[in-house]
Amino acid sequence: MPKHIAIIMDGNGRWATQQNKPRTAGHKAGVDALRSTIEVCASYHVEVLTVFAFSSENWGRPATEVKILMDLFMLTLKRQAKRLDKNNIRLKIIGDTSKFSLTLQKKIKDVEELTADNSGLLLVIAANYGGQWDIEQASLRMIEYASAEKLALTDLKISDFLSTAGMPDPDLFIRTGGEQRISNFLLWQIAYSELYFTTTLWPDFNKEELDLAIKHYSSRQRRFGKTSEQINEST
Ligand code: IPE
Ligand code: IPE
Ligand code: MG
To answer: Which end of the chain is more exposed for a tag (fewer CB within 10 A), N or C?
Structure first.
């Protein structure tokens, strides 16, 4: 079982278009798919689930779609906060949240605080997130920290300053919707993740689909640069 699963939830718009519905309907259905994925991951005792909800490039979409996505994010946080807490799930948002409305920023902070002491699944939502932004902000903070603490940069590690500091790197990376690209999601962190791409559109993603991805993951031999023989010897 992977400890950390990272998912690019792609294909909401195409799902809606296929059903002659507005793209919004796809995003709403996407929230339902996320809810059930969270439940399955929690039941499998996955430690961390990181999902890409809004990229730093998604601001380039039509203003109406951006607004709908922001409203949906707010509404979902409002509606799901208690349930997340009841299920012992800890929520963390990664990304440059300073670009969000003050009410949304406050809501994010409130839900993070509400769930901060939970010991079950860590749910990480990447919102206004970009992998390149993350490496940049980590580098800048590391330099500042080194100078404030009078430490050598060579004694510090970038991974301790990334927004995912303290979490294990993703073991399994999933992208739905058929595209085989990273779209500026976690860049540093997926260095050794097993990659799984499916043409299933995100709103159709379910337990069976997740099981397929996990099965694919468990059939891989992770060598981390070593030889097969070395891995076989040590297991
Ligand atoms: C992913 O689905 C959700 C977000 C990017 C917010 P899309 O909206 O990208 O759906 P497609 O790729 O257009 O089908
Ligand atoms: C990636 O999907 C971002 C999210 C799922 C939030 P996009 O639909 O934005 O990616 P591209 O544009 O196809 O690369
Ligand atoms: Mg897309």
So the answer is: C
